[in-house]
Design a protein that fits this description.
alpha/beta; Dna Topoisomerase Vi A Subunit, Chain: A, domain 2; 2 domains; 5-stranded mixed β-sheet; 7 strands; 42% helix
Length: 205
């Protein structure tokens, strides 16, 4: 793709570096921005910059937040003895959108994947164990993707927590094997959480 402007070429290069964005789509975004009001583009630029400078990770659950403690963890009406373990922020959003879950979360920040060089030490697993050790949690729901990486991570956590007095459950398999939570419809996801089963039972399915 030939460009008449180095600035456009650089902008297309940045946009096309985003997941799922090809060069043609990137060029469309760039041309759209060129047509916008200068102040609107400046506001857009400030928001992008703020994503790196102003966003925080909740000190309790590790989800993305505007404050040190996210709204869910700070809410006294949530059931803090019930914790849902998820891969990332997108899964928190998906579960919250069901309106059926009233516990809190623990965001791992990824899944165990030897092929990608991601091991247990790269994830927020130690802080999860510490929460269990202090008897903060009575039940943990493992709500990870029904993929090889998700199952591997769930089993690793299961083995790590087996010695503690905490109930481990897994979301019911209304979600097909290989599916990711963020793409599951809200009704199916909500029912999968409500109809959760003991984790050791899920191993035999």
């Amino acid at each position: 793709m030939e460009f008449s402007s180095k600035l456009i070429e650089q902008a297309v290069g940045h946009f096309s570096g985003l997941p799922g964005v090809g060069k043609k789509s990137a060029l469309r975004y760039v041309l759209h921005l060129i047509k916008q009001d200068t102040q609107e583009v400046a506001n857009f630029s400030e928001v992008i910059k703020a994503l790196k400078t102003d966003l925080k990770f909740c000190l309790k659950c590790h989800t993305i937040s505007d404050t040190d403690i996210c709204n869910v963890c700070a809410n006294p009406l949530r059931n803090h003895s019930l914790m849902c373990v998820v891969q990332d922020y997108r899964d928190v959003m998906a579960i919250e959108n069901t309106g059926l879950y009233k516990g809190v979360y623990h965001v791992l920040g990824g899944l165990i994947s030897p092929m990608e060089g991601i091991g247990p030490s790269n994830l927020n697993i130690e802080t999860l164990i510490k929460k269990v050790e202090t008897n903060e949690v009575q039940e943990i729901i493992l709500a990870l993707n029904a993929t090889m990486e998700g199952e591997t991570t769930s089993f690793f956590i299961f083995k790590k927590l087996a010695q503690y007095n905490v109930t481990l459950s897994a979301i019911a398999r209304g979600i097909a094997v290989g599916d990711e939570l963020e793409y599951t419809d809200e009704v199916t996801l909500g029912r999968s959480i409500i109809n959760r089963i003991p984790y050791n039972t899920s191993l035999t399915r």
